[in-house]
Every structure is written in C-alpha cells, then in structure tokens.
Fold:
Amino acid sequence: MVGGGSRDNTVQVAQSLGMRVIRQSRPGFGIALLEGFRASGGRLCLTLDADFSHDPSFIPNMLKEIDNCDVVVASRYVKGGSSNTTLFRQLLSRLFNLVFQFGLSLPIKDNTGNFRLYKKEVLDSILKDEFREIENFAILPAVLVKVFAKGWLIKEIPFHYSRRKFGSSNFRLFKFLFEYIRFFMIMERKKQYIIR
Structure:
C-alpha cells in the first residue's frame, strides 16, 4: 500500500498485517497511484478503493477476463452496471465520462472509476510517459488514454458501485471540476495521445 500521510493508524495496521508500505513522495491521489504502479511486482496489478465501495468479492470476475484483454475495468456504465450514490454525484460522473468518451474519442464508458485490473506490462509501457500535469483524480482517465493510445485492449465488465462504508470522502467539488476540465484541455492540446 502507498501511505499518503494519513493521521489515523492505517499504516500501523497495514504493517502489522505484513503489508509493504510505501511513503509517497508528495501529496495527491495520482502521485500515490503512480508510485504504487512503479513499486508493484508480479504479472497483474489491481486497484480499488478501500472503503468497500468496491466489493472485493468482485475480483474473481475480473480475473476471469484478464486473459482475454490487457486491462479490466469494473464499469458502472455498461449494461448491467450501476451506481448507488447521490443523484448529483451520478449526474456529474456521467457528464464527465461522456465528455472523456466522446471528446477524446476514448471508447470506454467508465473512465473515472478506480476498480481496475492491469497486466503489469501495460503499466510498465505507460510509466515511461510523462504524467507531470496530473496529481489527483484526473489520473484515472489519463491512464486509460495512454493505455488506449498504445494499442492495449481494455474490457469493461458490469459492476455495482456501493456507497462507502467507512471514512469520509476526499471529494471537493470545485477542485474536482477544475482538475477534470484542466485535464481535458491538456489532452486536447496533446492530440498525439489520442487514436482517432
């Protein structure tokens, strides 16, 4: 796990369970994700939110699919998927996903979810690129843009997103909106990332 300087006893509990804890170099969800990618070993790398909004019992469904593609996305927005959150959050999420899907010609319906299974070779190929502009939640669509642009196969499978069971969200509306709009503008300037 990547430790981001939390003030609770998350790090101590993780270490007591035998987990390796990486201290991230600077703040930000995107930084944590990239540093976790770089430190990961093995053939596969799984990402999910640890507040039980991503049900770990769904992982076998993802493992069944990974031999037929390079990245599996647990998707709220393909047929059979759903999201149990507030109407406002659902509308906002749908809007941004539609903007990324059509504005960046990215054929993925759920670009902003974090429940994904990657082949490690896919991550190794994109970590050679620059992610300097992206430090927080825009890392999620940014990773898929780079994966798709390099020709790797992404598969979405239907998933039910639940409300978090523990802790409080780090979601801040204006910061979130600013970063996603900024990310979209960056991608529009860097057309070489997009396969049209």
